[in-house]
Amino acid sequence: MKQYFSFQWHITDECDQRCKHCYIFSGDPCRKLDSMSWEQMQDTFYNCLDFCEVYGRLPYFYLTGGDPILHPDFWRLLDLFHKYDIPFTIMGNPFHLNDQVCLELKALGCQKYQLSLDGLRETHDWFRKPGSFDCTLEKIGCINRAGIRSVVMTTLSKQNRMEVPGIIDAVVKSGVNIFAFSRYVPSGGELDTSMTPQEYRELLALCDKKFKEYEAEGCETYFNKKDHLWTLYEYETGEFRIPAYACDGMIYGGCNCGNCHLTILPSGDIFACRRVADSKIGNVFEDRLADVWVTSAEAYRNYDEFSKCSRCKLKQFCRGCPAVAKGYTGDFYGDDPQCWASEENGLLTAKEERKIG
To answer: How far separated are the first and last CA of the chain, in Å rounded?
Structure first.
């Protein structure tokens, strides 16, 4: 079967929130909001289909913004997805959802709708806007009733990390289908991101215990261990083992940057990763995606360049988060600041044995 290739497609910067950790406004709170025209969206869509035809992949779109539903041609674009029978997920806000809207999304092929919770009520509403916490939990029901998979994602920083267990309780009670969290990438904002590796490992252990308790009770929420450092944690606990079929030089998991994912912004700029501010590799209005993938994206596939991961037993399966490493160190291939792998725990080879690609 063909493998999916995911396009995180931001069709507009328009949004009815101004989140404190939003990458759109980081460093420039007064920047001009971009939005694609209908003609540009069509060109982008067919450029993506051309890419998948060239490389024998199936397209999957993560449609987002801003809030994509605010784009005047939002529904027109979904009709185009439906015409080509292309699956998609929407990553947006809860404010414009109701039962009828969700039923229309389902009819046009929406598989998942992702919302965000970045703390319990007081913290989340500080991050986003008053009333957002309660509205998010309420609209999970609308999504579920329409037969769309509901997803809640938490962006983790030092400010909210100890609220994650409470967030898990809240989303399970609301009936969410999928829950995950990922770490905030430093981008010049006001969030404190200085978790130590030990603090982060303790949080994973706390969440793992909670996940298992809910699973034992028959909870239907799927806990998506999205952060790649879960692989390191589960290797230590014995839940993950390096498979016997693993071959040197093959990548089986970990970060999808430069592998099976691209981000397209409303300006047309193509990014290897949305969370890496300087990872622009082209512009979809000017470049053929299939060509960009061969040339500019190659810089993000040099796995032996990782200063730490290149020496790790789990290189083929983990590699932490290069975006977080870039945000902290300025180096995409630098050390993930929350990774606790070391020579002492037997995961790393000696530094002088590192291969240079």
So the answer is: 31
